[in-house]
Structure formats: C-alpha cells, structure tokens
Amino acid sequence: MYFLRQLQKFSLPKTMMVHFYTAIIEPILTSSITIWYAAATAKDKGRLQRVIRSAEKVIGCKLPSLQDLYTSRTLRRAGKIVADPSHPGHKLFETLPSGRRLRSIRTTRTVSSRLLSALSTRPEPPLTLLTLHLYH
Fold this sequence. Notes:
By secondary structure, the protein is mostly helical. The protein is elongated, with a radius of gyration of 19 Å. It has helices at about 1-10, 15-30, 35, 40-60, 65-85, 115-120; strands at about 105-110, 125-130. It starts with a helix and ends in a 6-residue tail after the last strand.
C-alpha cells in the first residue's frame, strides 16, 4: 500500500495505479486463493477485503472484491482442467450436452482423491454433490 500511496502522491493516472495494484498487490492477496479461501474465516476475509477497499480509496475507482477474485480464479482453474484431457481431474468435469454447464459429481467418503479433498474442505456427509456452485 505504501508504494500505491507514493504513486498517488506523484499524481499518476488512475490506469497506471490500477495496473500497479493488479500486478503487485493483487497477486499477494490472492496467492493460492483457490486452496485457502473456502477454509478462511469471515474475519480473515474481512481483513483482506479491507486492504482492497483501502486500495480503492487511494486509486479512486472500484476494484474486484475478494469473492469476485476467488470466483474468477476458480472458474479459470476449472476451465483449464476441462480443457486438458491429460489432467487427473479431467474426468471429474463432465459437461452437459449444451456444453455450457458442468454435470454434478457424485462421490462417497471412501473416494480417496487429492483433488476432491482440495476442492472441498468442509466435512462431507456420506453422499454429496460437488458442483462449481459450491466453490463460493
């Protein structure tokens, strides 16, 4: 935040400050967000969101919220898994005939998959449905 305030002090245009935020601050805030976000407490999420709001005030424009960043990164990651047939989790993402939505995945607790345990950090009942809608 210090360097962002310095850029503001030197009267840099908003676009340059947004580029700085996107290139320097945002990657620090969202490093491995697809892994830790589901397990983060509301207090932790609020603290990170406060940093984003501070940057918005310094820059003077709206920035994507932490939830928006998590959603976009998760969807991008799922898209890469769907596009790569050699990925171990490729078979977990079966598209519906329309090609726009993914079919739900049925699993049991006995499934020993590192990918499924990474996607779901909450305790699961014996039979669950995992969809992309559960990622937020």
